[in-house]
Amino acid sequence: MKHYQRMLKKLIGFQLHQLCVYGQYLNLDTDHNGMLSKAELSRYGTGTLTSAFIERVFQECLTYDKEMDYKTYLDFVLAMENRREPQALQYFFRLLDIEQKNYLSVFDLNYFFRAIQQQMKAHDLIQCGQGDTVVSILIDLNGFWTYENREVLVADNNDECEV
Ligand SMILES: [Ca+2]
Fold it and tell me: So where does this one cross the membrane (predicted)?
């Protein structure tokens, strides 16, 4: 019985999540044409994805007249929400490997890092409330790994709390 309840809870949670994802899609589609443009997708989440990354999504993923349909959006959301899963990492690797060499070169890393650099100002660093973490990641290898481990711990806790 408990097993059945847990399954039902999971199924309801999954369907609620699907509804949420579709609701987000409709919210992002501000011109109501049923598709997402680059500008519309750039408002995804906290609206802080770099234009360099959004550009790569539209270059590599299936689009129609440079607009994204719900199926492509769903693949994008699944990857974004499951960044630790091999399938998601393959999705991102395809986007990060700009010249399709099957490895990430300094050129690829610089391309994405520059975009972060260009978008971050001293004011952002102070206002974001995570300035110390950002500085630690950028200047100290130990800081980077500490942050990485913190993320894993938070994700593990979230797994246990999920519906
Ligand atoms: Ca639209």
Answer: none
State pTM to two decimals.
0.71
Question: SS3 for 55?
Answer: helix
| Ligand 1 centroid from CA 32, angstroms | 5
User: 88 CA to middle of ligand 1, Å?
Assistant: 25
- Give the CA angle between residues 111, 153, 16 to the nearest 5°: 85
Q: Which residue has the tokens 């598709």?
A: 35
The Cα–Cα gap between 89 and 82 comes to 9
Q: Tell me what the pLDDT averaged over the chain comes to.
A: 85
CA of 72 to the centre of ligand 1 (A): 14
User: Residue 159: what pLDDT?
Assistant: 59
Specify the amino acid at residue 134: V
Q: Find the 39 Cα to ligand 1 centroid distance in Å.
A: 9
Contacting residues for 70 by C-beta, under 8 A, at least 6 apart: 22, 25
